[in-house]
Amino acid sequence: MSKIKPEDLDRIGKDIKRTMLLREGSCRIKIIVHMGTCGIAAGARNVMKALTEEIEKADAGDVQLTISSCAGLCSHEPMITIEQKDQPAVKYVDLNADKAREIFSGHVLGGKIMSEYALAAGSERTL
Amino acid sequence: MPHITNVMICTCTNCISNNALDIRDALESEIKKRELEDDVLVVPTGASGLCVNGPILIVQPEGIFYQHLKTEDIPNLVEEHFLKGRPVKDLMYVPPGEEGPIPELRSIPFFKDQRLIALRNRGLIDPDSIDEYIARDGYKALAKVVTSMKPQAVIKEISDSGLRGRGGAGFPTGRKWESRRKDPRTPKYVVCNADEGDPGAFMDRSIVEADPHSVIEGMAIGAFAVGASSGYVYLRMEYPLAVKRMQSSIEKAREYGLLGKDIFGSGFDFDLQIFKGAGAFVCGETTALVASIEGKIPEPRQRPPRTTLWNKPVVINNVETWANVPVIINWGADWFSQIGTETSKGTKVFSLAGNINNAGLVEVPMGITLREIVHNIGGGIPKNKQFKAVQTGGPSGGFIPASLLDLPVDYEQLDEAGSMMGSGGMVVMDENTCMVEMAKYFVAFTNDESCGKCTSCREGSLALLQILRRICEGQGKEGDIELLEELAEAIKDASQCGLGQSLPNPVLSSLKHFKEEYQEHVQNKRCPAGVCKALISFSIDKDKCTGCTLCARKCPQGAISGVAKEPHEIDAANCIKCGVCVDVCKFEAVSVT
């Protein structure tokens, strides 16, 4: 490695900035892929893979992708939930990789709820 | 492609001694077995802070906190959390006295009231990865100072921030740097004092283990400001992991050209090496530390003249002070000086130890009260016992009683209370602590560690110790308390260095706040806390004893006799006062008087 210049600090930082944001737990929008046994059996892994690729492609450092368990609606898996601050969470059902990509560009990047794939807005109350 | 989950495993010395490395291996092999290696990344980090609950895992981005892990917990954890997305409640933190766990780190009281500056990267980066340090704005401050600032401007920024030495004495850092900058002699040196030796203190070790580059960057900035081109990190050999991480970090910084010649193409040269101390407590004293680096016997010497290294100017700052420097440069003196009190700016790292639920490492803004540290962050005293005192400043500090718990943490206020900020050791004591015995413990420590150069310190500490011993053994004489006071003042006056001048503090502060406890020992031959063996006896309350026979079975001397379901008795002649019967009795029937 040759000596680094001040501008190299940003380059080095940028490469792992997303990992750092992930560790800090700070994000604009959160995508939860439901990865219960039912979800995995119905193809949640492909959905996950598609979303990871899309995030990578869009260089969307402010999007957090995480997993959760079965959401209780096993017959409509794979499912994802999209959460954004001060907005009701949106659940999308019966997904595949292509639909996930569409939702990513429409909802996550475009801010538009894709009602054709959405189940409902809002989540159950816990406790 | 980045992983979607980062598992931060604490690999500080504490957690490693609790098998953190085995847990890391188990995690990695289980993740591989489940084919999750593209999704889940295991990252070793420095101390997370809640050391007593180690080994610890923090799962990001959710921020789930797992504690007290064992290797056998790992397969289930990986399957449940990483495969099925169901965090495992049984392994989470449960606050003292409550039943439900708190899953997220940011909601745990221990963490949420802290403010991290020196420990800004703890739990977030792999200390062995320079890239991760850089991604968290690392080396930006160094780039800024060497390419765009004059040394005077750097010193002004540090002076304006109000940063004071975190090693204990609290000398203004900017003023120290300015005096060395003006010194015409060359070459100049910068030194990091990491010779941490106070009982119960582990702040410096944790900073070096968690974030070595923060110290290296701070030192390079200091070197630029004063005009030094080389430096030493004085680390003790008892800290092998800190030495290893510092060494590899120095090497990586060299590879990147962040140490060495012409840093950032600015013409500024600076390099750094580790000096391993052999572990004498006195080496933490500035003049003894330089003597040690020079290869001489580490004995303190009179100041002034100002401390030098090989007769050349040297800036010596503590680990935590150096770690603060890059943040002040990046965020500005105004920002920093808004945190804290009138005279004490910024934050302070403390290691909480003793009778406290959340023993560990905390960083808090100056001005926070001791009550908040002990009760909110520290989670209070175990077993619902009463708080008695907190000892700050190590063997040079003093005891602060419950009546002063609302004291704000600040250099001056702690001094006034008869203690001191010190380097940050904070030992909490409950109602079952004898203050005379504690004073004896600290004096025994300094007596052992005295370098022996000054008679007042060498012999004075021994004389103090002998008086304290006889008081604890019930041989205290009329006039002993006055003698302790007189002797303590004489040692303070006649000793040359900080060790001797401050060694009587535990005696004086315990006399100031707990004099009646001394009087009870001397006049009535009683130890009110029930600790000093010569002054206590054990007996069983016949009304409370149910005759469960537990104490009789546990007594190592067989000194307890009695028939089942009948009150038992202790044979005083045979009793060694070990206290096992008190600990095991479920009916509080054993009393100590």
What does this structure look like?
- Chain A is α+β, with helices and mostly antiparallel strands and 127 residues long.
- Chain A is built from five helices and five strands; from the N terminus they run ααβααβββαβ.
- Chain A has helices at 6-15, 17-24, 37-42, 44-58, 97-109, and strands at residues 29-34, 63-68, 80-84, 87-92, 118-121.
- A five-stranded mixed β-sheet of chain A has the order 2-1-3-4-5, covered by helices on one side.
- The longest helix of chain A is centred in the middle third of the chain and has 15 residues, at 44-58.
- The mean pLDDT of chain A is 84.
- The mean pLDDT of chain B is 93.
- Chain B is globular.
- Helix content of chain B is 39%, strand content 16%.
- Chain B is of the alpha/beta class and 593 residues long.
- In chain B, a hairpin with a 5-residue loop joins strand 11 (347-354) and strand 12 (360-365).
- The A-B interface holds A 1-6, 9, 12-20, 22-25, 27, 34-37, 48, 52-53, 56, 64-70 and B 1-6, 8, 39, 41, 43, 60-63, 82-86, 106, 124-125, 131-132, 134-140, 143, 147, 255-258, 262, 264-265.
The overall pLDDT of chain B, averaged over residues, is: 93
Radius of gyration of chain A: 16 Å
Q: Main sheet of chain A?
A: 5 strands, mixed
Order of strands, main sheet of chain B, comes to 7-8-6-5-10-9
Helix content estimate of chain A = 40-55%
Cα-atom radius of gyration of chain B: 26 Å
**Spatial shape of chain A:** elongated
- Helix/strand/pairing class of chain A, anyone? alpha+beta
Helix content of chain B: 25-40%
Broad shape of chain B: globular
Sequence stretches where pLDDT stays below 50 over 5 or more residues of chain B: none
Oligomeric state of the chains present here: heterodimer
Per DSSP, the total helix count of chain B is 23
Instruction: State the largest interface.
Output: A-B, 36 and 40 residues
Mean pLDDT of chain A: 84
Q: Structural class of the secondary elements of chain B?
A: alpha/beta
Strands across the major sheet of chain A, in which order? 2-1-3-4-5
Uncertain ranges of chain A: none
